[in-house]
Predict the 3D structure of the following.
Amino acid sequence: MPGKKASKLKLQDVLKHPVVRRVTDDTNPELLERRNYLPPVCKAFSQKYTVLKETDRFKFTVDNEAQKKLPNIIINKVQKIQGIKTADAAFARAYGKKRNIGIVFSGGPAPGGHNVIAGLYDAAKKANPRSRIYGFLIGPDGIIENEALELDDALVDAYRNLGGFTMIKTGRTKIDTREKMELSRETCRKLKLDALVIVGGDDSNTNAAFLAQEMFADGVQVLGVPKTIDGDIQVRDDNGNVLCAMSFGFHTAARAFANSISNLCTDSSSDVKYWHVCKVMGRVASHLALEVALQTHANLTLIGEDLADYVDEHRLKKAREDGTLDFHAYGMTLRHLSRVICESILRRSAVGKNYGVIIIPEGVLEFINEIQVFIIKLNTIIAEYNQTHDKEFHAAFPLLEDKLEYLRRLAQRSREDTSFQLWNTRDDDLFNDIPAFFQEGLLMERDSHGNFQFSQVETEKVLIDLVKDYLNILKEEGRYRLGIEQGYFQKTLARADLDPNTYGPLLFENYGQAEFLLRKAEIISVKTLRQSLEKGKLIDAEDPIPAAIEKIFKKSMPSFKTQLHFYGYDGRGNDPTRFDCIYTYNLGLTVFSLIANGATGQMAAIHNLEKDFSKWEPIGIPIAPLMHLEERKGKLALVLEKSIVDVSSVAFQVVKANREKWLAVDSEGDHFRKPGPIRFTGKSEEERPITLELNALASPDD
Ligand code: FBP
């Protein structure tokens, strides 16, 4: 017996066997291929040197506060990077001087980060092999605490084209106090840094601008790199000219989510019994959900920005007729949103499809009026508490019950003191109406940047619970039914020697008029079925209900079964798509060009990213003019503006135009698209995100 033979082998020998060694090795061919891949570079980088050309073509409206707080970098302009073959001796000396450069990852991981390091490392070492590149460990804490690792060839090579931020890790600390600023300056002095590169999202690039201002006098250049899977760093000037179409990591995360969700589309249309509810990351903006919709053609995709635009025409009409104003007609409520989802479920059910796939963006609550009001009010309450007490809010009230009690006291105060309306009785009543797990989510600790942590809230559960409740009501009213295909009904009855034309008109409201038959609303149980049959004189009181009729009735009673999924951390850790590999390597080269040419307070970017690679142009974008005042932790703060989905964009309009088709309320199949997995070699994935490709149609070549 083979089992017996194998058992004679000594384990030490098995472990030394070449097959065992090969299959248990930490590396595999794909990994080696990724490590050895050298991404193509933009034309400017094919020359020995690069220079910066400032351009006045792009206009920005500057915020007064930014003008005041960032005087040395507010005057920065967009800089185009151009390659030059030769340079005079002074330029060549300055360009190739030995430099110490620090780089840090800040915020959530995004596929491609290692290639930013690789690009920066390669360019810096090419300009001067004696230059030193330090990676700060575990995010901005590494700068504050001077925890840095000098990078070498072996380390950089081990991570080329690989996902994650594993090489130096990441963290979410914000350098937002005088003390942290001082410690950061101290670290830069100790390491004799010429430049510091911050690879991060909107908040981290905001930090980069403040550090650039702070260290201007020290001569330390600070540059940002646009990272985040959320895709919400997109830069346009006042005239709508696109400077940075997308942050890196977005394409990979969206492709990874899309691959998994497309597999669910296949599964759900195979065993036809589940609605898969997929929440996809994206703290506020719905860019990822939009791209996943384009990649998969899932049956229903909610886009937060679209919901915020919602106007209830019925309410408006009624208010007009009554000669009144109805402010509740504007914007979507959670309840109304659950009704919108129910409507789609009902319509598919009516054509026999009791299954499907729904995509919910993680940040959808940000666009629901009532929840947004809670988030803002609670942010302010927590921030005010922290400012006036020694103990921090969450430490003072560790349990949900304690927090609710504190809110109750605030509501009480609002009754006694009419000038205090931050939390009134109505807020308290409404808040007490929502499920405990959701209350906990809304009260959860904000992150270090003051952001609400949407990924920790089970948004999909809140919504689907409301959907379930409403579907149960509709079921009791006989309005939630599974359509029975006419041919199936006739065959089933014929097999039981029953005349379909006798039973059909009694059972269905549309018998003979439609391909899918809808059970009459009054038949909602075996009891009411019996009553109808008796009333129609098809059976007597003592007769049993014919088995075929009962079978049809049961089939027409849908049960709403769901599977909830969250796509976020998995896609965020995927190895980058070819697009993200090439994009990030070129961002690394760009950031070195900015450093070598003396820039500070700029963000590295690729102009024309949405177009063919041959048109890509490396640029530096001034960060300070992009900043504006925003509410954070209950206070106004100067931050980089997040870019949310533009509902007039081509990408959104295409999704909107396809909504009805992808919902597939007909007897035909669904229209699911299979994006396939991210493959490094082969031709499986598109050259760039579909969103970018579509939106580029609105910005023809300059
Ligand atoms: P960044 O903006 O820092 O890139 O992070 C984005 C993100 O992945 C969001 O999509 C998500 O809401 C959040 O991070 C999750 O945060 P955490 O990693 O702290 O759980």
Remarks:
- The chain has a mean pLDDT of 94.
- Residues 107-108, 110, 172, 201, 228-230, 281-283, 362, 454-455, 572 surround 1,6-di-O-phosphono-beta-D-fructofuranose (CB under 6 Å).
- DSSP finds 30 helices and 19 strands in the chain.
- Residues 252 and 577 are 5 Å apart (CA to CA).
